[in-house]
Amino acid sequence: FDFLKEKDEL
Amino acid sequence: MNIFRLIGDMSHLLAIIILLIKMWKTRSVAGISGKSQILFALVFTTRYLDLFTSFVSIYNTCMKVFFITASYFTLFLMYHKFKATYDSNHDTFRIEFLVVPVGGLAFLVNHEFAPLEILWTFSIYLESVAILPQLFMVSKTGEAETITSHYLFALGSYRALYLLNWIYRYYFEGFFDLIAVVAGVVQTILYCDFFYLYITKVLKGKKISLPA
User: Fold this and answer.
1) How far is CA B70 from CA B18, B63, B138, B185, in A?
2) In chain B, N or C: fewer CB atoms in 10 Å?
């Protein structure tokens, strides 16, 4: 899984 | 960004606007749980701390500012301006029974043991149960105003749409966040019986009246 460090969701 | 997340965010925005309209037009907060609104303000505060440190997009920043501003304005209306109409006798859910366990879980289960990450995890877990005081209040009062039902439907739909957004992102972007998905599933499940009542009753012009 690629845990997106940059939180781009609200 | 994808269509599911966009509609989800719009549904979330709509829910908050419906609530503000209901309060402003009826000049009353009857039937609304102040406890849930406190939890939502806490969710936005702990989740959007990166508002000033990381810029994602104009849209992202504007929505975060609106959500935080609207949630505190809602608290102001509930506990100051329209305080006289706040039904504290029916808004009795002990939110410390939610905040404390969620806080503990955020420390134990997270992606990274760092302050911002733990606060983000706390806000994700808290949001999944933040509606409980409101649903508890509706079950105690035995009914909900139609506009409150629309508020709850929009609010519940937003996270259900986010589940579709995560499925989309998993297949097309290889993105997956187990914590957000599990909490989102729990959150959406909590609305299921309300969704059933809303679709079978409210959409047929009846009011929601739970067996008290």
Assistant:
1) 11, 10, 22, 25
2) C
Give the pLDDT confidence of B25-76 residue by residue, as tens digits: 999 999 999 999 999 999 999 999 999 888 999 999 999 999 999 999 999 9
Give the gap in angstroms from C-alpha B84 to the nearest C-alpha of chain A: 33
CB within 8 Å: B64 and A2: no
Q: Compute the nearest-CA separation of A9 from chain B (Å).
A: 8
Q: What is the pLDDT of residues B102-156, one digit of tens each?
A: 999 999 999 999 999 999 999 999 999 999 999 999 999 998 999 999 999 999 9
Residues in chain B: 212
Window 97-156 of B, Cβ < 8 Å to A: 111, 120
Contact A2 B180 (CB under 8 A): no
**How many interchain CB pairs under 8 A, A with B?**
30
